[in-house]
Amino acid sequence: xSPTAARKNAWRQRLFDQQRSLxxxxxxxxxxxxRPNGMPTRDFATFEHVKRRRDGGHMGEGNVVLAHYKCxxxxxxxxxxxxxxxxxxxxxxxxxxxxxxxVANEHA
Length: 108
Hints:
Mean pLDDT: 76
CATH class: Mainly Alpha
Distance between the termini: 35 Å
Radius of gyration: 14 Å
Low-confidence stretches: 84-108
Number of helices: 3
Strand content: 5-15%
CATH architecture: Orthogonal Bundle
CATH topology: DNA Binding (I), subunit A
Helix content: 25-40%
Order of helices and strands: HEEHH
Oligomer: single chain
């Protein structure tokens, strides 16, 4: 494993522990294991930039959280992903389609 990969894995584990293994968006449990073919599962804990890098966000503490692979991809494709409210997970199946700018501005 390269030094960069080792640092990312350690950072992912630290965030995973801080978030108590819960997705930043839907508050459901995440996993740290990939499929046997190396691809992430839908519930894999991916790095999520609260303010996207292309919108001026940085790769560092305070702007990076962990989110499910599926939640991260939905947000990347402009589908609104709600954080849990009142301790109940949001229903990602009913997510509204939004322009990328609206999703980005929601967390600016």
